[in-house]
Amino acid sequence: MRIAISLVAAAIALSACGMSEQADDGTDQAAPATETTTTTTAPPTTTTQETTTTQQTTEKPASKPSAGTKKVRIVDFTYQPGNITVPVGTTVVWTQLDQSTHTVDFDDGTKSGDMAKGDTYKRTFDKPGKYPYVCFYHPRMTGTVTVTS
Ligand SMILES: [Cu+2]
């Protein structure tokens, strides 16, 4: 029994020594290391934010429309709703739900091309104004997108 106890005691003493040394080393190194890391990290974080801001500014035209999306359905040979008013930067999405082929052809020359059932067509409006459009196959099918600033 005495041998066993002394062995255990020795083992505890050894492990305690080892642990305390590691703990001391770790604590001593950790303090300055953390300060250094914090100080070093701070400027890059600011730089990252500036970079992010710049990127956001660049990406705004692309990300803005996704926030402002207006949907128009093409149903029964009509655009529903046919006349819409949206703020500048809005992306309008036409969804074609008729069996018959339709198009969204703007007076300014922008055209969707043939749209079969289930097709969608998107156009982002970055400038205020009136954008009338018509179906190439059905001239009575008309609509207007009014873009406000
Ligand atoms: Cu049509």
Automatic annotation (TrEMBL):
InterPro entries registered for this protein in UniProt: Cupredoxin, EfeO_Cupredoxin, ET_Amicyanin
Domain EfeO-type cupredoxin-like span(s) in chain numbering: 59-147
Which keywords does the record carry? Signal
Compositionally biased spans, kind Low complexity = 29-59
Q: Where is the signal peptide?
A: 1-23
Q: Any keyword Cell membrane? A: no
A Pfam family that this protein carries is Cupredoxin_1
Q: What is this protein called?
A: Cupredoxin domain-containing protein
